[in-house]
Amino acid sequence: MRQSQLFTKTIKETPREEISVNAQLLIRAGFIDKLMAGIYSYLPLGFRVFKKIENIIREEMNRIGGQEVLMPALHPKNLWEKTDRWQYPEMFKLKNREGKDYSLGWTHEEIITPLVQKFVKSYKDLPVFVYQIQDKFRDELRAKSGLLRGVEFIMKDLYSFHKDENDLDEYYEKVKRAYFKIFQRCGIKKQTFLTLASGGAFSDYSHEFQTITPAGEDIIYLCQKCKIAINKEIIEKTKYQCPNCKNKELKIHKAIEVGNIFQLGDRFTRVFDFQFRDRDDKEKYPVMGCYGIGPGRLIGAIVEVSHDEKGIIWPKEVAPFQIHLIKIENNKKLEKTAEKIYKDLQQNNIEVLYDDRDKSPGEEFAEADLIGIPYRIVISERTLKNNCVEIKERSRKKASLIKMNRLLQFLNSKVNV
Ligand code: ATP
Ligand code: MG
Predict the structure, then answer these.
(1) Among 135, 151, 155, 220, which residue has the most ligand 1 atoms within 8 Å of its CB, making it the best to mutate?
(2) Domains of the chain with bracketed CATH
(3) Residue 169 backbone dihedrals phi, psi, to 5 degrees
(4) Cα(196)–Cα(243) distance, integer angstroms
(5) N or C: which terminal CB in the chain sees fewer CB atoms within 10 Å?
(6) Residue 9 Cα to ligand 1 middle (Å)
(7) What pTM was computed for the model?
(8) Is residue 241's pLDDT more than 60?
């Protein structure tokens, strides 16, 4: 894409009302725009990142048998009354013109359970794994953390239905592994830890995936021995000892919960009287798991973890483009060469943002650093004289020269992951 065609622009001043680093950088670099507290638009650059993350999540969910659906965001009152959650404080409620009550979905157990019930009659129909990537609404009081805490935000929510606890346990472990694959591909695996949280009535624990950063709103206790983290509630109960390996050497960190998985047992299937006929001819309630992850919160977490004083440093797989091509100085020959490189990269399916504007090199470099694309390629009189271009990784200080005729080969090996 040509940068001259991008309808958004970068912003020099830090937006005053934003206190979180992720919102400041994402707004300044032109990835998102704020409509009101906790509610943001994704702009072209931000939406590219969003779609990359969405696709990573989709691929990993499909790999573990997930079937994608899209459920409504507008819900009838009766389903929420059934589970006794109509009074949930974070739920937005609204009425139609005849006074009928609706709510905006903040989670979807109440919708998915009666839906799957319509199709599952026998043990032969189980297990079922269904997910969606969809808008959620929560009346969050602390919506001051940019994309980390939206009032409207997208969530991937997966629900699994099983004939028994063993089957659920097995699948639950699979989801854990899929989640770490997602965090690895998003470039935050090193900072992200499985965290024991309270599990409610159906298992000892639920599991959070917590990414360590000073911007985190949660506190975790990371066991220095087994590297499992424990959240505040659990650690108080275990008297500051790791429940996994009994070690007492724990390190306190601030962290962001990027994902959360739960065993729900038959809490919901029982309420909806959802039964199946088992192999032994008895009617039983399926047991459920639910598995959430927030792609928007992930973007926020990535920016919190991966930036410097100049701007964002995108991990390769989620970057809006792989290459930021910049021509400095303006003459016909230079422009022709830059255009050719731009076309060559596109033909090789290498995603490139081409800064074809007439701005000063200083301005162009500062904007490139702010936007944070993994590789910057600069063409100038000086590089051209040697038949070279300059290439620099966003995460490194040093640039190097590379011969023009070796460029494509080099990029194909580095960039096309
Ligand atoms: P928190 O304790 O941070 O409010 P939660 O326990 O309410 O999170 P879940 O209901 O488990 O979150 O939601 C599953 C996932 O959805 C979270 O792990 C997170 O990635 C994402 N998520 C939850 N609330 C928000 C929000 N307000 N904005 C953006 N993403 C969110
Ligand atoms: Mg919450």
Answers:
(1) 155
(2) 3-308 (3.30.930.10), 321-415 (3.40.50.800)
(3) -55, -45
(4) 9
(5) C
(6) 30
(7) 0.97
(8) yes
